[in-house]
Amino acid sequence: MLELSAVSVRKRLEGVSWTAAPGQLIGVLGANGAGKSTLLACMAGQLSPDSGGCYWQQQQVSRMTTQVRRQVISYLPQHPSVSAPVSVGHVLATGLVNLRLPVALAERVSQVAREFNLTNLLNRPMTQLSGGEQRRVHLARSLSSDSALALCDEPVAGLDLYYQLRVMELLQQRARSGQLVCIALHDLALAARYCDKLILLHQGQLLASGQPMQVLTTDNLRRAYGIEARWWCDDDGVAMLPTLCKGEHSGDL
């Protein structure tokens, strides 16, 4: 069980409380600057709240040792980077080397590469990959450990349509296998289609949480994003047509 208890970070989050059980894919939504990345960093133990706390199985995440956190939590930040010309295979291996694995390291790297369609890139330097390819490598590395709690900040940013859907399916599969997967997203249609539950942040506060159609209401979208939205839903998924609220939004260019 993941529990957030009145998590506050000065000028970024204010009193966010929320709980989630394993086996779910959770979408963290909100406009730019709403606090999504800050919240995920607190969950991952990369940032200590000024007050309140994040707890995994009743253990405060910020007080876990680095080794324990690495075994329990996987974390993909919003802007991961590798400046050295190391290979894709090396990057994947570094995500596994400190873990106790039931299979040999090379075999596990091959498994992860196949899952994320990276086999033909294993010997390529990271610096020679496109932005989308690098994103897939970092995502594969963060999810390779099969940790109990997986946190991904904008995992589909910069990916083409095929890989957006493929990554969302993989994240959903992780959740169905028993992991708790929490991801920050900007694509509301993907969030509604794949996520079991959503939390919506607005100016650092929790505006709404629950099932997608309970959260993505006209009033919530108008308040959080300054948009109106029309939804189409059927057995194959959802689509959305957003329009700007006339004369309301503070984010004018």
UniProtKB/TrEMBL annotation:
Keyword ATP-binding: yes
Annotated keywords: ATP-binding, Nucleotide-binding, Translocase, Transport
GO molecular function: ATP binding; ATP hydrolysis activity
Domain (ABC transporter) ranges: 2-228
Extent of the signal sequence: none
Domain of life (superkingdom): Bacteria
Any Pfam family the entry gives: ABC_tran
Keyword Transport attached: yes
Function (record text): Part of the ABC transporter complex HmuTUV involved in hemin import. Responsible for energy coupling to the transport system.
Protein name: ABC transporter domain-containing protein
